[in-house]
Amino acid sequence: MSWELTEEQHMIQLMVRDFARKEIEPVAAELDRQGTFPQALVAKMGSLGLMGMMVPARYGGSEVGAVSYSIAVQEIAYSCASTAVTMSVSNLSCEPILLFGTEDQKRTWLPPLASGAVLGAFAVTEPEAGSDAGSVRTFAQRKGDFYRISGTKVFITNGGYAGTVIVIARTSAGTGSKGLSAFIVDGKTRGLAPGAVEDKMGLRASNTVELVFEECPVPVHQRLGDEGQGFLIAMKALDGGRIGIASQACGLGKACLDEAVRYALQRKQFGRYIANFQAIAWMIADMATELEAARLLTFQAASLKEKGLPFTKEASMAKLFASETANRAAYQALQIHGGYGYTKHFKIERLYRDVRVTTLYEGTSEVQRIVISRETLR
């Protein structure tokens, strides 16, 4: 099977690459140092159609498909992983509405998300509910035509800036994952407020916060699907989200490889460029081979999604392999840089910090292995 890009996909790749290298790359290091959220870049990505790439045109999206989305995330991540995850999570927030929303919900909530006028967030994780989503304690109690949501979510990407938040909350006590429901919450609703901002090792320009709900009123018509469908909705969304993180890892890994190649062709030791030493050359060969395999796994999962075929196992495979591969590439690229790679004078230092989280969020590597083994053993 050939993964030669279509003409449209190639044009999207060139467009996003040009935008990322000219407008994101020059400011990425400073955004990281200052921990500054890239709000101006988000607006520009919206104008380029990058915030609703899988949303149908009738709802304001660019409707270019999951493969083009993967390509775009890779190109953005190559220049700035923080900006890439901001874009990825907002696209992810469209998924539950597309899959489970009513026609009225789609027409109301998707156009602002797809245009970038509103940023999306996806709120599942809690202090006691990480990989175990069935342990969610945030409660949504129905009172007439409203639900009152109370609880705390943690590690919410875009949470401090989101205008639309997809929230998974408990509507039935003591029933584990079967008692969860999903809601579309306006970020300005009273009773919803950002809490502590996380001071992270990497992705420092990405906004990651607590979200605190205190009797937050949400109309019944903003519930997604039926009561009790929340866990299913979350898992379906995370399948697509894993393609986004795999794509982010591919972009980061390619940046690590390119930084290693560039440095190896410039740095001399013992009278010759270090690229001529077999130890270095073989590290670069392994990086290039594994990253190509990661890219192909990611495109396979994206292609299945685009065709409307099952892709749960393939998304987990792509996320697992791409994230682990990118982490190895960062390690090897920094090793090739030697002591200089440990300083902030070189991009590899930022890449090394940014890539680490890819094996953690949207399901740890251990969770991916559970999913892959379960799907294979079926």
What does this protein look like?
A hairpin with a 2-residue loop joins β2 and β3. The protein is globular and about 80 Å long. It has helices at about 5-35, 40-45, 65-80, 80-100, 105-115, 230-265, 280-305, 310-335, 345-355, 365-375, and strands at about 120-125, 140-145, 145-155, 165-170, 180-185, 190-195, 210-220, 225, 270, 270-275. The protein folds into 3 domains: about 5-120, Butyryl-Coa Dehydrogenase, subunit A, domain 1 (Orthogonal Bundle), CATH 1.10.540.10; about 120-230, Butyryl-CoA Dehydrogenase, subunit A, domain 2 (Beta Barrel); about 235-375, Up-down Bundle (Butyryl-CoA Dehydrogenase, subunit A, domain 3). The model has no long low-confidence stretch (mean pLDDT about 95). The longest helix has about 35 residues, at about 230-265. The two termini are about 25 Å apart. With about 375 residues, the chain is α+β, with helices and mostly antiparallel strands. A 4-stranded mixed beta sheet has the order 1-4-5-8. Strands 2-3-7-6 form a 4-stranded antiparallel beta sheet, covered by helices on one side. About 50% of the residues lie in helices and about 15% in strands. It contains 10 helices and 10 strands.
